[in-house]
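Let's practice the habit of predicting before peeking. Look at the sequence and jot down your guess about where helices and strands might fall. Then scroll down.
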Amino acid sequence: MNRRILLSISLGIAVAFGPLISPAADPAPRVVRLGFVGPLSPSTLSFAPFWQRLRELGWVEGENLLVERRTADGHLERLPGLIADVIDRKPDVLVTYGMPGAIAARKATSTIPVVAWAMVDPVRSGVVASLARPGGNVTGLATGYAQGFAGKFLEFLHEVVPQLSSVAVIVNPDNAMSRLLTQDLENDALARGLKLRLVELRSADALERAFESAGRRSQAVVVIGEPITLENMKQTTTLAAKYRLPAIYLQTEYVQTGGLLSYGPDFSFMWRRAGDYVDKVLRGANPADLPIEQPTRYVLSVNLKAAKALGIAIPESILLRADEVIR
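Done guessing? Here is the structure:
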């Protein structure tokens, strides 16, 4: 048989049977399960940057990503049960946010990798051994509040109210984040010669009483961004205006809803970075070796409409530093 005939036969076999015998078929994509448990209802804050970042990194829900979502809707006592339910489904990684979520996840499992973000102080709360080497199954992003951050609230309020002598802090004593921030605020208030008055808030039913009490006893108020006030954001900012209290908050959403001032980490950027951490874990990184990331971007927001309603002139020193000004 000459070479031309042999080549023709070989090409014919390849055309006819090539799809059946190809050795280079792509392997099926790996499908992973992600548990997502949070203290807040889905409508309270937007986590779109987190999911967008995962898609950019190749993790697409419905294709190679299965998501088990659970939300506590502002009821922190539900977190342990919700996390236990997700753990029963054996996720490849458990994702949560806020100090209550991180603490609940750490207590629930020591084996499933956990990525938590917006942690107030993961070291003081016992969630990790250190920021540089977490040492267990939890990693993620801290808020940086432990680095003298709380004092910025009092600094900005003092600029807005130059004669400031007394500040109320609306705080849920059952929330670990609130307790830690309150300790830092007390230390900073003492150094500034300010009286700090703690107003406890354990349920949404007590919101009006809390602001009424703050209005009687103080010239301004710090609202620590925890689930009760976040889930009732509009009512919170409305009550601050009703009782004539210049207020500062953690998240820009408060200012966008009518609040006066907010100062805190760039949470949208933090959500995206959380997507990077999840990607690393899903690709084999050990959470014990992934340092807890501290924020490098902070956002100051000002609502001039709220200031006008309170009869306050926002000083130029604040406006020049503001990242967002609502007019």
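How did you do? The chain has two domains: 32-143+266-296, 150-265+299-326.
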